[in-house]
């Protein structure tokens, strides 16, 4: 194949029609509080790992809602389960437990 | 002697003010341009935040106006201020000499077809908040059951280009309420709300938002940019999920546009004859923003409800009651010496 130097960039558009809703529903049954996230960013702001690595529970939840499991995996891979986010979450989500459930259900 | 008070507009503000004034012993004449009393409330099914049937509230308001002379399907053809009373000629041929006038002309719904990119009036699946309420009220269900439903907040609100830069105040709570009701009616449907920010400012409004989240409604922060039709006749929606800074697309069966509030055209007609001043947003300007909210710059002419800007139903009813108090004070000070 001759390389002409042209390529097609993959689309960055999120396609919600293709998002895996079954997995997310499974998560929502195990962790009903995941639905309560209002994306305030307190978890990410208090995250000890986020200062060094791209870590954010808020964005991980969003990625899962958008069906982007790989992105969620990356955003949680440096979590040390310190639990600071649990202390600051204004919706009272047990974020530590949620992270563990995400890892279990999505086999991250 | 009973003083005549003319109330223009038979929506919630006009009805409640008429009820209070008539209990105070005034001779209240109410003019409503439409066939039915109740304004937009009469067209609504249930109210936020607790889904009270709109009919219950309307019946309560109508109970209060038994002694009020109501003229429906009646416009105010002309109105002018004489020495200190108003002379109004109604379209039914009746002339009224009123010592005070309450303008409760409310609002018009923003015409959603003006936002052409959303396809209202073009695609069958696109409807407005008012259409949705009508469907609920008539018990109409869509068949086949929609698999995906979207709600677009701020249609013709917070939109300078559409000539309506202000927030219409009630659409966020209405969207969340309707999303919950849609999810109740079609439990298998995916329900999305496209919002810029959620303005759930009132008591119990935040509970409504939480309830919507728990029922599985997905909130996407970002305004819908365009709607098109797929080959199967469904709706393809494009927006940005601004929380993840990425464009998003989704296919829906129904899209509900939260049309905002515009100043009432019928109210403007009255306002022009009396030279009442309006602010940049097109709504009437009160004498001041704190102490004289119900007073216009014209002595004897008062305001209540959404004619001075978007308001919730409780806000409107509060204003109606305080306008009645102000009118009573005005009459006592000026006509009973």
Helix and strand element order of chain B = EHEEEHEEEEEEEHEHEHEEEEEEHEH
CATH homologous superfamily title of the largest domain in chain B: FAD/NAD(P)-binding domain
Largest sheet of chain B: 5 strands, parallel
> In angstroms, what is the radius of gyration of chain B?
22 Å
Portion in beta strands of chain A: under 5%
Show the largest interface.
Answer: A-B, 20 and 18 residues
Number of spatially distinct domains of chain B: 2
End-to-end Cα distance of chain A, whole Å, is 37 Å
CATH architecture classification of the largest domain in chain B:
3-Layer(bba) Sandwich
Helicity of chain B, as a percent range? 25-40%
Trace the largest sheet of chain B across and list its strands. Answer: 5-2-1-9-20
Averaged pLDDT of chain A: 94
Please provide the count of β strands of chain A.
1
CATH class of the largest domain in chain B: Alpha Beta
Number of helices, where a helix is a run of at least 4 consecutive DSSP H or I residues of chain A: 6
Gross morphology of chain A is globular
Order of helices and strands of chain A: EHHHHHH
Largest sheet of chain A: none
* Structural class by sheet pairing and helices of chain B: alpha/beta
How many domain regions of chain A? Answer: 1
Secondary-structure topology with pairs:
The complex is a heterodimer of chains A (108) and B (337).
Chain A: E1 14-15, H1 21-30, H2 42-46, H3 57-65, H4 69-76, H5 84-88, H6 95-105
Helix pairs in contact in A: 3-4
Chain B: E1 4-8, H1 12-23, E2 27-31, E3 46-47, E4 52-53, H2 54-63, E5 69-71, E6 76-81, E7 86-90, E8 95-98, E9 100-103, E10 107-109, E11 126-128, H3 129-137, E12 148-155, H4 171-185, E13 190-195, H5 205-214, E14 218-221, E15 224-229, E16 235-241, E17 246-252, E18 254-259, E19 261-263, H6 265-273, E20 301-303, H7 313-335
Parallel strand pairs in B: 1-2, 1-9, 2-5, 9-20, 11-18, 12-13, 12-18, 13-14
Antiparallel strand pairs in B: 3-4, 6-7, 7-8, 10-19, 15-16, 16-17
Helix pairs in contact in B: 1-2, 1-7, 4-5
């Amino acid at each position: 194949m001759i390389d002409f130097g042209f390529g097609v960039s993959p689309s960055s558009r999120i396609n919600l029609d293709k998002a895996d809703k079954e997995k997310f529903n499974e998560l929502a049954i195990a962790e009903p509080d995941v639905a309560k996230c209002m994306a305030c960013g307190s978890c990410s702001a208090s995250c000890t790992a986020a200062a060094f690595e791209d870590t954010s529970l808020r964005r991980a939840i969003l990625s899962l809602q958008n069906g982007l499991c790989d992105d969620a995996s990356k955003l949680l891979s440096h979590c040390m389960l310190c639990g600071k986010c649990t202390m600051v979450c204004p919706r009272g989500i047990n974020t530590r437990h949620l992270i563990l459930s995400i890892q279990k259900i999505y086999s991250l | 002697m009973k003083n005549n008070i003319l109330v223009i507009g038979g929506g919630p503000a006009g009805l409640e003010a008429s009820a209070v004034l008539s209990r105070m012993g005034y001779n209240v004449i109410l003019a409503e341009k439409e066939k039915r009393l109740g304004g937009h409330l009469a067209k609504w099914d249930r109210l936020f935040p607790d889904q009270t049937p709109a009919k219950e509230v309307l019946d309560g308001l109508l109970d209060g106006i038994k002694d009020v002379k109501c003229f429906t399907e009646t416009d105010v053809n002309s109105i002018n201020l004489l020495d200190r009373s108003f002379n109004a000629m109604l379209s039914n041929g009746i002339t009224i000499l009123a010592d005070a006038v309450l303008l409760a002309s409310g609002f018009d719904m923003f015409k959603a077809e003006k936002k052409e990119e959303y396809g209202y009036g073009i695609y069958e699946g696109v409807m407005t908040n008012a259409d949705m309420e009508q469907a609920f009220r008539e018990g109409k269900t869509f068949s086949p059951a929609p698999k995906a439903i979207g709600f677009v907040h701020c249609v013709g609100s917070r939109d300078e280009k559409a000539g309506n830069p202000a927030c219409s105040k009630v659409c966020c709570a209405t969207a969340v309420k309707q999303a919950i009701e849609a999810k109740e009616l079609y439990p298998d449907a995916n329900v999305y709300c496209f919002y810029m920010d959620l303005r759930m400012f009132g008591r119990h409004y935040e509970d409504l938002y939480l309830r919507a989240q728990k029922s599985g409604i997905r909130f996407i922060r970002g305004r819908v940019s365009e709607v098109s039709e797929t080959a199967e006749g469904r709706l393809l929606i494009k927006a940005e999920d601004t929380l993840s800074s990425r464009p998003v697309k989704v296919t829906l069966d129904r899209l509900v546009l939260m049309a905002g509030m515009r100043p009432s055209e019928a109210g403007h007609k009255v306002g022009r004859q009396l030279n009442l001043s309006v602010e940049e947003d097109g709504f009437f300007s009160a004498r001041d923003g704190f102490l004289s909210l119900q007073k216009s710059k014209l002595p004897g002419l008062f305001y209540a409800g959404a004619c001075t800007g978007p308001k919730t139903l409780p806000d409107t009813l509060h204003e109606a009651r305080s306008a009645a108090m102000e009118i009573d004070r005005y009459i006592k000070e000026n006509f009973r010496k």
